[in-house]
Amino acid sequence: MQSNAALEYDYSLAKKFTFLTILFGILGMLIGTTIAAQLAFPELNYLLGEYGTFSRLRPVHTNTVIFGFTVSGVFATWFYFGQRVLKVSIAESKFLMVLGNIQFWLYFVGALAATISLILGYSTSKEYAQYEWPFDIVVVIIWVLWGVNMMGLIGIRREKALYISVWYYLACFLGIAMLYLFNNMEIPTYFVAGGLGDPLHSVSMYAGTNDALVQWWYGHNAVAFGFTVPIVGMIYYFLPKESGQAIYSYKLSLLSFWGLMFVYLWAGSHHLLWSTVPDWMQTMGSAFSVVLILPSWGSAINMLLTMKGEWNQLTDNPLIKFMVLASTFYMLSTIEGPIQAIKSVNAIAHFTDWIPGHVHDGVLGWVVFMIMASIFHMAPRMFKREIYSKKLMESQFWLQTTAVVLYFTSMWIAGITQGMMWRAVDEYGNLMYSFIDTVTVLHPYYAIRALSGVMYFIGFLMFAYNIYKTMTSGRELTEEPQFRSPMA
Amino acid sequence: MFHWLENNPFFMAAGISIVISFAGLIEIVPNFAKAGRPLVDMQPRTVLQLAGKMIYMKDNCIACHSQMIRPFKSETDRYGDYSLSGEYAYDRPFLWGSKRTGPDLHRIGNYRTTDWHEAHMLNPPKIVPGSIMPAYDHQFSNIADIETAYAEAVTVKKVFHTPYGPEIKGTQEAWDAYRPTVLAEAKIIAADMKDERVKSAIAEGNVPEVVALIAYLNSLK
Asked: How many CA atoms are closer than 13 Å to the CA of B61, on its beta-carbon side?
């Protein structure tokens, strides 16, 4: 087929997953803001009885933003740009369309059921892998459905060479599949024990130190392959598309991609520094964390240099602002992580609020910004309408940027304060502070963090409203915008 | 080579899989058997303590509490001896935690008692002024799922050869026969407690969640 006519792509699946991204985003961030407020104002723990304590809600927050919000965002963007870079409409294959719809409904129902199970207290207690075994099986089925869909689309592609973003999404699929499968190996007790007890309960295949190693190999790299790999894939597609600029360097892309693939997984053991895992593993995790700066900054610098000579776009296109700030936060986060992975720094930072601070400058500043920017870019093309309000987008940008800065600065101070107080000794060598002193001192920082959560959440509602209004009352477009997204 | 890979998705996927597998193979696998070894003469947790561990997981205590004392003087002064790998050999899952919003609990059994825990779980700021921990009042009225804890003991005995005695077997009769042993252990804990709900539940032959949890916390030494 050598026709020059633009292909018509089918965005029905992209739209569906976009709605879920927004829905789970609102849910996850609402719970996140609530639990942040609970640390500053403990009375808020009693709003929902036993189901509303900080401890019960924290995994609901993490799992909703990871497996609800981010994964929907990955699916939505895949079903959008996958067709475009492979030059094939998914509607050309009925099979892939049906598969995609099964994936959507199974995912929607599965995610809701899994969330309810966490609220009820069914939890394997392994961080970001708390779902009990039946939900793990559902997750695996959904993931395989997506993989088959991706491979299928690649199989019927017209564009032979895979674009960089496809490499990253392929890696996201393979990486998460491997990690999730191995870390969630568990044995349902009901079946082994001859029908005694709760059918939902299971025990981990691994014990103690081994379980810790497998868990943090997973925990660290679920972040790698969920929060970094596909998001880098997104920016490789959406930044050039929005700005009209070609990617700065192909070689840098290659180096960053293969470097990231090789180096990232080694760094998992930096979550276990000073624990009972062998020293050489800790040192390995530490060293590879520092090496990880190279491929991470490689991608980020490649993005920033893509804008070379075009920085004026930063002032007049808020979407470019979102993406450039996202890659800047990615740089901040990927230099901060290696610093925390140095053993002597980790001795102070580990177990403190500096860690959630680090996580959130990455996710709020990089992941969420990039997913929102992608959806803003997709909206005029999917709904064939102009973005409803540029002004609203601008105010959202500044509100959320301020929120992220408040979040990580308050948590840096809180973390380092607490870490130093735990080890402080008086002139006779006795501990200077009892544990509770190191808790009460954090109150102002917890309050600031809760405020930043409220600000960020409001920003996200502004985003949701803007997309809703775009869908329903944005000015209709007669032809697809080529680069810059039109906005009123 | 890279151009060729970009045109051959199968080999691209294979290449990615190989490159990302290295780390796990080299870092995790070689040490697996050694890291799984328990301390000499270490006993696995009793069924009541296992039920308590399940409450610890259900109410997700690891959101705020660690069980990992690092080898620093500031930590051994505060919490006791630093943790050893073998102490965790029967812990499925490991419960080290990653955040200390509250203190470490790995040796809490050495310095807190049943009645302290009872008063503390009912109203933490009353016992520790300034505490931001919520009360866990529901643990006093909810009944612990001892049968599932028993099923867990049966499972780890069968599958991982965790050294439980011959009385732990996966049949209804074995469980019925074993139940009084768990109750007797719970009664010893409950004898140090004042709460009326706990007393009446125990009298009816049920074990409230908080009793199992305290049994577990007391075993952390």
From this structure: 25
